[in-house]
Amino acid sequence: MCGRQSMDQTRQAVHQSTRKSAHGSAQGSAHGSAKPTFSELFTPKLVTVWREGYHLPQFKADVMAGLTVAIVALPLSMAIAIASGVSPERGLYTSIVAGFIISAFGGSRFQIGGPAGAFIVLVAATVARVGVDGLLLATMMAGVFLLAIGYLRLGTYIKFIPYPVTVGFTAGIAVIIFSGQIVELFGLTLPGKEPGPFVPKLIALGEAAGTINPAATFVAALTIATIAFLKRWRPKWPAMLVAIGLASLVVALFALPAETIGTRYGGIPRSLQWPAFPPVSLDRMIEVLPDAVAFALLGAIESLLSAVVADGMTGRRHRSNCELVAQGFANIASALFGGLCATGTIARTATNVRAGAHGPVSGMVHSVILLVLMLAAAPLASYIPLAALAGVLAVVCWNMFEKQAFATLLRASRGDALVLMATFLIVVFRDLTEGIVVGFALGSILFIDRMAKSVAVEADLVQDDIADTVNAAGAYDPSEASDADTIVYRISGAFFFGAASTVGSVLDRIADQRKNFILDCSAVPLFDSTAANVIESAAHKARRAGVRFIIAGAAPPIRRMLINHGVKRPLVTYAASISDARAQLVGK
């Protein structure tokens, strides 16, 4: 996983990729490029790489990168599975099956798929409520939903989730995951089943504080310290795997009374299970529908964010809808083989890029290596202490909680801080889905408020005001801006429902001033139906008062919108510019 420096690099990568995407979109619009074809949208990056020319040097680079990622993914996949309330091999099944499909058919060159820490809370809650069979059915349904999102080309819109929501959501998940590892970190013994909700869980942990197992605590601390040491002094070493190996060796040599995978789960199998459908019925599908929707939405967000990070690190551009289609097939296949819900993983994808991967073959190699390790070295997994895996997840949680970004948003503005804290607190104390919904709603309201405040209505400009108030859409000639019988208003900014009351209150006074009214819309990039209704009402009022109403400079889409809402002759006339509007008045 990435440390603080790596997380900062990730943020820079996202920013750079967003700028490149926006620049590319602007160029496409400027050149009037046609819409991409189906094959352009859904051709896997593996095909693209082969078309470019794929030879032995590229294959060697992908093999080395795949080996590096597999070493990172091996302990992490098992740790995520155990934290999710299932046996460790299911995490390996996910990385092997889903990881291979995501790389082979996805829209990103460097995406590494598998089980993700962000899903731990959702998966654990699903398993507790409907069992493993219900989890597998929900995962398959989530795969179908992801296919639909991808083929309907909705992937473009998922990236619109506000940044404070993603930071608050990720931080909330980190807190919940860490709270779920405290039992294993300290070897606590609870009298009953560990509560799911956050506050009852903390109460139960406090009551069990007297049952701390010193051996388990030592193993967890040794694991965390080893990872931290290697990340600082030997950053190229596979810190998590080394830490797991060292902890297992210490427990075995000194016969420490710490629970292991073997003592709890009896080890892991040495083969993939045969594909099989989970029990399916209409009632069961309805029961797990909320879980499937949550898996699909979180998987889509996480995978596209991971792809954007890879884009920013490499200068490439992923195909979002193709990536979602691959995620859909991967989740269906993962469930058939007994795996968990899968998505693109940011840390493993970033590791893949830094390891020098050339294309999707590295992700496919990573899955094959994991399969070989499971077939050949499965008995060794029995010696892995659960406290060591909990230590790995504790490090994951530390890195997931983006401390610098969290602090920056708290200082940025009251609105961003409100969205951040609302999302974070609701995720921790209520529910993940509610946290996203509330955070997105607050973020949208904040955006509407900011956009509404950016709309300006200017009237009767004089020469001294022009430099400060008129943008590139055009400048006023003071001789045309006003005369004894004519008043000119200019609207600047997006005119939509959020600004309707502000603009409407100004336009309502036009009949009380002069005989001719020119409304300059040359600086308006957007009209919605609410704005068109405001203009229609103002036009009717002007007609009743005998005021001539001319709309100048409206772009063709805006003019069509207004005409469709009844803003046409005899209520108003249209002019290409203020000069043309003045000419209409002279020639009347």
TrEMBL record:
Q: Where in the cell is it found?
A: Membrane
Keywords, A to Z, come to: Membrane, Transmembrane, Transmembrane helix
Q: Name one Pfam family in it.
A: STAS
Which CDD domains does this entry report, sorted A to Z?
STAS_SulP_like_sulfate_transporter (cd07042)
Which residue intervals define the domain STAS in the entry? 476-585
Membrane-topology annotation of the record: Multi-pass membrane protein
Protein name as annotated: SulP family inorganic anion transporter
Question: What is the scientific name of the source organism?
Answer: Mesorhizobium japonicum R7A
